[in-house]
Structures
1.
Amino acid sequence: MARVFNFSAGPAALPLEVLETAKQELTDWQGCGMSVMELSHRSKEFLGIAEHAERALRQLLDVPDDYRVLFLQGGATGQFGAVPFNLADAAQTADYLVTGSWSKKALAEAKRFCRAKVAGDSQESGFTEIPDPSEWDLDEDAAYLHYTPNETIGGVEFHFVPESGDVPLVADMSSTILSRPIDVSRFGLIYAGAQKNIGPAGLTIVIIRDELVGKAREGTPRMMDYAPMVEAGSMLNTPPTFAWYMAGLVFQWLLDNGGVSAMGETNRAKAELLYGAIDSSGFYSNPVRRDCRSWMNVPFTLADPELDGRFLEEAKAAGLTNLKGHRSVGGMRASIYNAMPREGVAVLVDFMKGFEARYG
Ligand code: PMP
């Protein structure tokens, strides 16, 4: 059976090699006579799997020793609430940079639990750019500064790390983690849902500086409190074992393929290829300011939206799937995470050129 090029925003494509390994190990993981799904999370086999995944992730992102890595549940959406519960008091201010749908949602949730405020936003541009740092209204006493390095729906990405002074910087890296090197020491807390660049849905990664652990307010549910989770090695309850195992396979695949530096080069090249095709045509367009364009999610519209249905149909027939844009913006969106090979983007670009020649 032929695999398609899957441009889904998430759950997203996984590397074929990872799926092949999982398939081969599915019924009998390394001679233990059962699948990973059937192993106790307290067994020495699973503890080995869990440790390997953490070690590999630490190596990939060069995570400093004074940071804890957690493998949690509840998605990035769960972290929208967990962050204020852990880092702010109800009366404290927290700053939010709002650059699209996901940062808006993070802010709305935080407002329920602390004095979350907009420190900068790009609403006026229709969320097609990053607001200029000189215009940010940062509060020196804020509990933290939150931002969304990559807006998955709008396709807007920060190609720099915001300067937050002594205020801990918190980043929702759901759709950009592991796509390029980052300096973890610049962040107080990083979180990400797994279902884009890490593995299957159901797993949420949190990377947190030690000094921020143990500050949760009174009444924080234990499942949302980082301190008992750190204490329990992310096993306060039964963790999503299979997703954790799959994440470990993806991390190993990244290490075997040159790590995040190599990934960054490939991702840059993939993005340049696709934006180049869009910009050089009079038929396709992308509204995002050039210096804020996402390497991971590339939205684009056709000159005639009447052709959207035909585009999607013919793309699917050509083995290019899940290109429909988010309902809030319409048009198309190609999500080109780590597991999308350069070849997949090249095939898409060829298809786009052919489509334009036929109907443009
Ligand atoms: N933040 C970002 C940037 C996302 O892309 C998504 C999911 N698309 C979320 C948060 C929500 O993630 P989850 O479904 O894991 O809660």
Note: The radius of gyration is 21 Å.
2.
Amino acid sequence: MLKGKHIVLGISGGIAAYKSVMLLRLFVKAGAEVQVVITPNGKEFITPVTLSSLSGKPVISDFFTANTGEWHSHVDLGLWADAMVIAPATASTMAKMANGVADNMLITSYLSTRAKVFAAPAMDLDMWKHPSTVRNLARLKADGVDIIEPEAGELASGLSGKGRMEEPQNIFDRVASWLVSPQPLLGKTVLLTAGPTYENIDPVRFIGNYSSGKMGFAIVRALSDAGARVKLVCGPVNLPTPEGNIDRIDVVSAREMLAVCEKEFPHADGAICCAAVADYAPASCASSKMKREKADTITLELVKNPDIAATLGKMKRPDQILVGFALETDHEEENAIGKMARKNLDWIALNSMREKGAGFKVDTNKITLISASGVRIDLPLMTKTEAGRKMVEKIFIDEKADS
Ligand code: PMT
């Protein structure tokens, strides 16, 4: 299954290192060539003899072999790898990875590699929750490291909680499925807006809408699974960031969303505007809570928000693909095509509030994809996960194959 694949297995110094022997065994049994790189502390937990016997290669730990003076090239190692798997990744190794502290072979190899990197953290529950670890974790995710989250359970300290390294079989499955699945969007970056925007009226009230972010996050998962790096700009939503090469930037208002999109779009290969952006915002936001006893009626002055999709449409280069959504209640197709033209979009995904099971909040959607060149694809009612996959396939993958 993994014949011809090159894996660097990085082992750092934690008790979970004993599980890495099983992980190594699984990779080797599947036909992969594995080079183990172990930190000096890792060797306190598991011997290089065990690891070299199983991998069939000398284990690398130091920059030089002491008696021969042979130099181990972290650059060659980094380039040789198809994937680098750091398991266990201790709090210290994660901190060094996040900050580029290249004081051992494992970190220098990590910094030199162009391969996909997976890290399976393992530590005590309080270390896992510590703000420093939380910061480093966020940095690693933003850098594109695929984090295989630890499980909750009994820990070596005798305490119970989240921090146990994921089981070797599950780490193997995750890495192997990435290695064997096609990654047609590897090296591509896609910007995506998701969720609602909130436009503040006063410190406790806002104008918003019912978007949950589910549709946008489903597309993010599909893009990431296809190998793309995703810049996810999302309004206030209650959803965890999907695993993968995803850089999430949280915003509140349309103006904040626009500012991030204008900055990121020039660096992207395309953008999908799935957010339900408020069309209007209060002309001003009261500095203190508006009191209800002051008046029986009030009038809010609203000003038009900037149109993010249209702004990106003006900035768009010929090599970029721009996709919008249209959420309609009537004259659906006509309105969607009009929006596509006004905003200079290449594709528009039409969903109608009149269709049962489509639109806001629900887990399903019914989308019609329409392209500026006249292609029309009617997707049936399906889960947002499936709809996200279909959209990515039709717009970013099939399109590329056709051109
Ligand atoms: O988040 P969920 O609960 O899963 O719901 C998903 C969804 C219904 C929000 C999603 O499928 C969807 O339709 N999103 C777009 C909603 C919308 O604002 O549509 P619109 O027809 O008003 O806008 C047209 C396009 O312009 C959209 O791509 C929108 O992101 C963009 N737009 C609109 C206004 C604005 N000021 N800036 C924009 O970029």
Note: The two ends are 31 Å apart (CA to CA).
